[in-house]
Amino acid sequence: MKNVTAEDLIRICALRPHPEGGFYRETYRSPARSGDRNCCTAIYFLLPAGARSRLHRLDSDELWHYYLGGPITIAQIFPDGQEERVVLGPDILAGQVQQHVVPAGCWFGAWLERGVKFSFVGCTVAPGFDFDDFEIGGRPALLKEFPRSAELIKKLT
């Protein structure tokens, strides 16, 4: 089997640019509803080398699943100002995880370390994703609210 590239995945999986950065395609939207939202949605998400997932937040929990490629670092800023970084990737022995939940209302973004060509993951949101519930973080407002996270905010805004 030949080595898969980010360009292969974009083409084969019919991915398109995501407003936060990277590429995505919705793969599932539950027909069941909870109020005005679908109960669950799922996407493929690809972050290629040199790209980043800008700080954003959702009104629902988001479960990340590792699929292919190198590790991806997910950074979170919780409402109380605490930070957490988790590496999603293939190397369990190095402490990487294959699934991670980002709680609703938490600011988060992601990046690849130098030398990683891409990371191909899945994201499942429940209640289901809606762009009305998606907020990209603005640098000035985030720096004012979370001054202790200035380095992270500058990296991901």
Describe the fold and architecture:
It is a single chain. With 157 residues, this protein is mainly β. It contains three helices and 13 strands. The strands form three sheets. A six-stranded antiparallel β-sheet has the order 1-2-5-12-7-10. A hairpin with a 5-residue loop joins strand 1 (16-17) and strand 2. The mean pLDDT is 96.
Please state roughly what percent of the residues sit in beta strands, choosing from under 5%, 5-15%, 15-25%, 25-35%, 35-45% or over 45%. Answer: 35-45%
Indicate the CATH architecture: Sandwich
The domain count comes to 1
Poorly predicted parts: none
CATH superfamily: Jelly Rolls
Enumerate the strands of the largest sheet in spatial order, edge to edge or round the barrel: 1-2-5-12-7-10
The CATH topology assignment is Jelly Rolls
Helical fraction: 10-25%
Tell me the layout of helices and strands.
Elements (H helix, E strand, L loop, with lengths): L5 H7 L3 E2 L5 E7 L3 E2 L2 E2 L2 E8 L3 E6 L3 E9 L2 E6 L5 E6 L10 E4 L4 E5 L6 E9 L8 E2 L2 H7 L4 H6 L2
Antiparallel strand pairs: 1-2, 2-5, 3-4, 5-12, 6-11, 6-13, 7-10, 7-12, 8-9, 8-11
Task: Fill in the keyword field for this structure.
157 residues; mainly beta; Jelly Rolls; five-stranded antiparallel β-sheet; 13% helix; globular
Provide a brief overview of the structure.
With 157 residues, the chain is mainly β. The chain has one domain: Sandwich (Jelly Rolls). It is built from 3 helices and 13 strands, in the order αβββββββββββββαα.
